[in-house]
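Quick question, first post here. What does this chain look like in 3D?
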Amino acid sequence: MTGDARRPGGGAVARLGGAPGGGVLARLGEVPHLGLFAALGLLVIVGVVTRPDNFATTANLVSILSLAATIGVITVGATFVIIGGGIDLSVGAVMALASVWATTLATQSYGPFVMALCAILVGTGAGLVNGLLIAYGRLVPFIATLAMLVAARGLAQRMSDRKTQLIQPGNAAIVDLSTTRVAGIPLLVYIFALVVVLGAILLYRTTFGRRTYAVGGNPEAARLAGINVRRHTMLLYALSGLCCGIAAVLIMARTTTGSSTHGDLYELDAIAAVIIGGTLLTGGRGTITGSILGLLIFTLITNLFILNGLNTSDQLIAKGLIIVVAVLLQRRNLKERAP
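> Answer (accepted):
Ran it through. Tokens below.
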């Protein structure tokens, strides 16, 4: 038996490529997120074919990036939580609460910097409450974050009296994040890119990131290795809340408002983007890159539905089907990798 044949799958690779590990199919199989890139390419082709005059334009590209920015920041936080073996259903409601709290007249009287800081602190605080309930209160993440979803949305409605709160003219610096462009791209897109880069560095290059994979993969083994699993879990949810606060600033900039209706079903898009990006729902494996590619796929689908005048209900059905298919493919891959 040759050395290549002794490697798991080595013989098959050799047969496909004609040489051990050197075939075209073998090399393609090693390309990270190849399927996601292929899906994005297919959606771009569909857009160009169905709406050639509207899809491939600078204005539409900026619109796609602006839409992706808000949900994208939330997706970064959701990636950490899911890799760590948790789930956060409250992200959309927490973002709405942060936007409402930041746009109250009392907060706006202190200026745009305090508004942004308020949104970030409210989001982080809500995430910290989630983390405390899950890590130290021993609540199941689904239940704890579901309770936060309901409570945060209700508190946002109570604070705003179910009314949309406009950003006052004196706080135009918040709105400038959406209207000011550098190289034709709004500032909020650059903020999104910065969050993605910082999230990737934190996940891939720091002890915090390595501990996140360890906690998600095997909490007991992580504990025996000296990791404070409870504290780390709490910090993961606080990080998710921080991302919700930043997203609240971005949505205030885009809409010039704070509203209890902001972020409706954002938890669906964020979690779906993470799952489609290859992150395991059971934790222990995933990437920021895959999550962002998954997000862009969902954003492109939304954009194509809008450009083609299709029903938003059909859009939700399509997203639901994509989520189911992604989870089934994950389960199949896990069974194939099992010894």
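The CA atoms of residues 220 and 315 lie 41 Å apart.
The radius of gyration is 22 Å.
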